[in-house]
């Protein structure tokens, strides 16, 4: 343990750290990286957040870090020109190494980075109130709005085809063909669920290809716990920028809805517990559209409810693919864990589908109202 801490301190010594460190401890509930809070022993010197980047998931860390540098620089510049904004708290601040790099690679090949720790904030794994959902919507909406004028050609695809359902479906069909553990015949209903919806779920991909949906700078991992809220439950900062790359707005809306409206766990076993809280849906949508309605096209607005079913479909598809393939990608805690996760996501898809008219009306009415309000304010 002291050995581990000495090692972490050695890593930190490569970064331009103010003051003297008093402790380094594991922090947060992220599933991807190892995250540590670094407490400063010197008064008036900042605390830090140290992360070891998971390079099994992210194959090209230098490119990913270039994306984060670009995006945080752009956000900061925009916020500095926005009256009332707090650029130091509303955007992540990378702490450079002594070699003026945004990351450090150790002798074992691990990649490390340091951010300023945003004090007095927290993230929620499960949304508790409509106020929180509204704040989450505002935070992710504002993120898109501030990045709407960034040229997406400057960004790298840090994980190619991440939310591309057509490519996910090809991987699924390939796993079915291989069927290495002979599990395919145990899950005919789940396979049928995927195949019946394959074409409809490809709508966003198709519209994108036809040039009817624009590629924008999107976050692509808009889980609700990737927004930091302050002590008054006000959204402060969007975090976890590893997957920022060109994408469709419906992806960000959809993944946020997936993790906001369903109060059951991502891998809930009892499917009857999986439901959609429409107050939370409405609250999130209002916050999101307040920030985005002025620049989203009508076709993008129409695509939002599709995104809400697409993202849990893609997650379920990825879990089911991994199950059929013999559980290589996701960590499992019991033998049929991936299957249970897939079933939970597919149930969420079904509940959202059954309420599609309500979702569409809520989105359209909210967008119309936001546009009217904005037009009046400009008079
Ligand atoms: P992961 O990809 O593993 O989810 P995150 O970047 O989301 O990693 O970080 C994990 C957790 O650490 C977050 O959920 C949040 O609670 C906390 N966290 C991340 N960045 C900061 C920060 N700059 N200030 C305070 N807390 C943070
Ligand atoms: Mg996270
Ligand atoms: Mg992450």
From TrEMBL:
It comes from the Bacteria. Residues 24-259 form the Aminoglycoside phosphotransferase domain. Gene3D superfamilies: 3.90.1200.10. It holds the Pfam family APH. PANTHER family: AMINOGLYCOSIDE PHOSPHOTRANSFERASE DOMAIN-CONTAINING PROTEIN-RELATED, SLR1880 PROTEIN. This is Desulfatase.
């Amino acid at each position: 343990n002291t050995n581990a801490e000495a090692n972490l301190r050695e890593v930190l010594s490569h970064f331009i750290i103010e003051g003297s460190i008093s402790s380094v401890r594991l922090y947060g509930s992220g599933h991807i990286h190892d995250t540590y809070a670094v407490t400063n022993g010197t008064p008036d010197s900042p605390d830090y957040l140290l992360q070891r980047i998971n390079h099994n998931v992210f194959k090209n860390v230098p490119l990913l870090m270039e994306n984060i540098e670009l995006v945080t620089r752009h956000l900061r510049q925009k916020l500095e020109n926005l009256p009332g904004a707090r650029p130091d708290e509303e955007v992540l601040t990378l702490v450079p190494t002594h070699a003026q790099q945004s990351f450090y690679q150790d002798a074992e090949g691990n990649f490390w980075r340091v951010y300023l720790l945003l004090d007095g904030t927290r993230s929620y794994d499960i949304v508790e109130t409509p106020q929180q959902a509204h704040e989450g919507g505002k935070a992710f909406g504002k993120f898109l709005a501030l990045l709407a004028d960034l040229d997406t050609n400057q960004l790298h695809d840090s994980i190619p085809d991440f939310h591309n359902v057509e490519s996910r479906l090809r991987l699924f069909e390939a796993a079915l063909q291989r069927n290495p553990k002979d599990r395919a015949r145990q899950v005919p209903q789940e396979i049928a669920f995927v195949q019946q919806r394959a074409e409809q779920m490809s709508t966003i991909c198709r519209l994108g290809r036809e040039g009817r949906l624009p590629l924008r700078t999107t976050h692509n991992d808009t889980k609700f716990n990737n927004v930091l809220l302050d002590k008054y439950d006000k959204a402060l900062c969007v975090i976890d920028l590893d997957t920022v790359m060109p994408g469709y707005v419906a992806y960000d809306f959809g993944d946020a809805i997936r993790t906001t409206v369903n109060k059951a766990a991502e891998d809930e076993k009892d499917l009857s517990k999986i439901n959609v809280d429409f107050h939370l849906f409405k609250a999130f949508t209002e916050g999101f559209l307040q920030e985005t309605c002025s620049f989203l096209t009508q076709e993008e607005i129409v695509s939002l409810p599709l995104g809400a079913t697409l993202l849990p479909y893609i997650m379920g598809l990825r879990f089911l693919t991994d199950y059929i393939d013999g559980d290589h990608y996701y960590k499992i805690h019991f033998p049929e864990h991936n299957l249970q996760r897939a079933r939970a996501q597919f149930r969420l898809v079904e509940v959202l589908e059954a309420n599609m008219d309500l979702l569409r009306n809520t989105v359209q009415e909210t967008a119309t109202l936001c546009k009217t309000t904005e037009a009046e304010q400009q008079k």
